[in-house]
Please model this.
Amino acid sequence: MWNKIRGSLPLQLILAAFAAWLLATGITEFSAPSEVNNISQQSWYQFLMLGKTVYIGLLKMVVGTMVMLSLVEGISNIGAITKLKTLGRRTLGFYVFTTTIAVSLGLGASLLMPAWEPLTQAVPLAAGTNLIEAEAASGGAIATKMLQMALVNPVAAIANGNLLAVVVFSFMIGISLLIALPQEHVLFEVIRGMNKGINTLVGGIIRLSPLAIFAIILEFSIGGSEALFSQLAMFALLVFGLTMLHGLVVLPSLAKLLTGIKIRTLFKGISAPLAMAFATSSSAATLPLSMKSAEELGVTPATSSVVLPLGSVMNMDGTALFEGVAAIFLAQLFGVDLTTTGLIMIFLMAMVSSIGAPGMPSGSMSGMQLVLLAAGIPLEAIAILLIIERPLDTFRTAVNVEGDIIAALVIDKWQRS
Model:
């Protein structure tokens, strides 16, 4: 039994989460409310939180460099610009296709639901919440923001966790090297060696993930997020149901139809990255585990090293679905009459704003504000979403990661044919 636990990372994650939940339940049941409220000041609690701090910190340290080396090696392994164009076109096309399905699912279900009762009193904004300017919803402003995110110094991008800029620079330098140098050049061997080394480092970091899961689940459970979740139970239930429909039916069906993989094999292979995505709410932090799982499912490194880093910054099915549902929900709460043009704007902005959304907890909130502005919904409505956004973020991040891995399976099958 012990050997089975040692050899199964998904099992370790499940056991760590269960142990954390048991401990949190015992603390909240048998401790005074004042002790629970001040638990973050306890030295033993701070010691347990070190697992989360160390794991997330180590991943932040290496994820930018890993994405850069992975993409450059992936481009060099493709071997020809024509093949890279085919891989890139297929990847972008598949991501746009699945995101379109997700947004359409969210909008369609929301419009079929009974209308929500309008608010009689506004929800106050949380302290420290910054709202963007109305001009930020224009097409030019959005394009400018995307370019400002993408075209920055690569060293600064790695330091700040700006994966969109890292991906753009990696593609530029990778294509330039592919054009300028022969495929067997020693520089490509150096890059492959560095990539192998950093993947070994990441593999060691991943072994610490059960400690991080334990700390995250303990913090989440003691923090009383369930009370926040219950304040908007019906909306949360709708988002949860649609997210699960997309993640458990739509995406697996596409994988089965386009690759022939068995559903059981698929979920067994992606269980570890899904658990990590659920716990961390960060697709960027889950990327190393996603790449490992994809390759264990048979995806070639040349495909996974390009498709998965791209997916971590632009394939956000769960985020796009959430933004579409939330826009309809808030429009009805605030009495905004959505015309056909308004619905089209929500559809387009949910897709656009999900691209490049930070792969971190609550990274979609800036994009959500763009959706609200485009539909004419008061920005103050964001206060309602902030009440329950964090718990819902866990589920949609898992769906985002699932979509990335399934895309890698599909694209790899197309590349082989």
Summary: The chain has 19 helices and no strands.
